Amino acid sequence: MTKKKIAFLTISVALLISLLGGAVFGQASSQKNNLYRYLSIFTEVFDLVRNNYVEQVPSDQLLDGAFSGVTDAIDEFSYYVPPAQMAGYKNYSELEDNGVGLIVTKRFGYAFVISAVAGSPAAKAGIERGDFIEKIDGQPTQKFAVWQLRNALNASKPLRLQIVRGGQTKRADVTIQPATFHPLELSSQQYGAVSYVKVPYFDKGTAAAFRTALENVRKSGNRKLIVDLRGNAGGNVEEAITAADDLLTSGLITSLEGRTVEAKKWQADRATAFDGDVEVLTDSSTASGAEIFAAAIHGNNRGKVVGVTTYGKSIVQKFIPLPSGGGVFMTVGHYTTPEQKAIKEMGIRPDVVVDLSSQAIRDTDDKDAKQTREDVILNKALSLFGAPALKNAA
Known about the structure:
alpha+beta; Pdz3 Domain; CATH 3.90.226.10; 6-stranded mixed β-sheet; 17 strands; 32% helix
């Protein structure tokens, strides 16, 4: 059977199972009758395909595709692991940034780069947010589940990646040399009377380093601060919450909600390391803890968020083994804004949205394009503070 035929059958059954999943995870008491109806429809279609399709299709193949369809219907970060793949899955680490520093998901069937961790081999190789990885060592990423994709990137040997750049159809071949790395640490800069702090990743110790940076800004006498969270897509959520608290004196920072997780709220304390004006920079690769930080500043009217709507991925996940021998890795909780809206639904929309359409298409033949590209978001933030724009800011 061709791959296209298998995909068609899998999707067909998956759609039906997705409906079943909606009934199972919805209000059971009110949908009991619908549940039996969905089961009946699924059984009919399953038997129809198995007994009448032009070629014989293994039942387990159809069911594995259908179960994967259930997790696809939940969100892009949840997935089903069939029993036959559990042996490989047991050696898989849930660390998102793998061995080369790529935070990836799947979009349109291919591997999609949410962010390349600053200082990682992937970032040094020139891979950027919005890139699609079409192949890994010659293997199409369409064949990989999310966990298999991340596992393939966690290699000890050089990786050959075929990249489709965001906004382009031209492909680029990139080789990444895996290496032990540590995300770039927080850095500070001065733009006249405006202080700038870049937080590329919320790692253990980031909150303490951020507090030190804020104390230095306060000692300098500057009353205007830009906190740059662009590209910050992973790391330690608790560090992000603690860092946000250092800019707040009251209000809800975030809360954790979910039907099977213990509800929790984080309130700001009265102490603050900096009480001047604040702007937070975001882009489409700002995710997880960085989104919580941005939401806390925005939702408590502490400052303005400037840039692009964030990714929408502040979640808690858990692997649940199944009696069949397989398992489901699924989202069981989500973090909220101070208004207690789920961040994963829409991301954080900036107070000041910056149009990046002029930079949507990149000139991959120009090696200096990235270095000479104007930093439109930073320049917008500086202008809001009355500071002059930077020329050709990378």
